[in-house]
Every structure is written in C-alpha cells, then in structure tokens.
Amino acid sequence: MSDNVIEIESFEKLNSLMKSMEFSVRWLVRSEIGPGWIGSSRTIDFYLDNYILSENEFCTVLKKRLIESIPIPNKSKDHVINGYGDITLKNNQLEIAYEWDSTIPYQHPSEFKEGKTIFFP
Predict the structure, then answer these.
(1) 121: exposed, middle or buried (C-beta count within 10 Å: 0-12, 13-18, 19+)?
(2) pTM of the prediction?
(3) Residue 115 CA: distances (Å) to CA of 15, 75, 76
(4) C-alpha 8: how far from its chain's center?
C-alpha cells in the first residue's frame, strides 16, 4: 500500500469511486509486549486502490461498524492480530470478505478466522 491519502466524506462518494477502484481494509492489533514496542494498540486503515482514506468522521464511522461486525479487539495481551479484507458493494451495502490471524510474537499463528459480512450502513 502507499502513503497517498484520499478524502472520502460520504457513503455516496465512496459508492461512486468503488465503481472504478478497489476498496480494502487492513488492521493490526499489537500485543502488550513485542519486538520494538511496549503497550497494546489497534490500527485500522481503509484503502481505495493505492490511496489510504484520511481520518475523518466518515472513516471513524466505517471503523466503528467494522469493529462491531467482525469484531476487532481494541488490545491484546499476548497475541498480535493481523487482518485484511476486500470490500465490495452488495445491494448498496458494504460487504467485507476478511481473513485474520492471531500470533504470539516469534511463533507461528495460533488462530485463523475468515468470513464475509455486511458491515455498512
């Protein structure tokens, strides 16, 4: 992915752009202690092709709905959770086909999940 940023302020604009661009999401939940960090945290980034969605009110709503639908924990004691999903339009709603894995740092993934769900609106 890239550092190019795109501003999307409404579902209507996103819907229009999704007709010619791929929409996806990546998330990372870090464990309490890992290589190069202390303190658990969660990041979620949405992408339209190679553009990352800027942080604004609409992006915050997308993240909230995604977290509620999958769910993605806010923090993790021992595991690092990596996830991604491809997002498509289905009956004017956003549907995500996602995969994620949970791994203790320096070990093999211990849990995998995948699924498909409508998460917006």
Answers:
(1) exposed
(2) 0.88
(3) 22, 21, 21
(4) 16
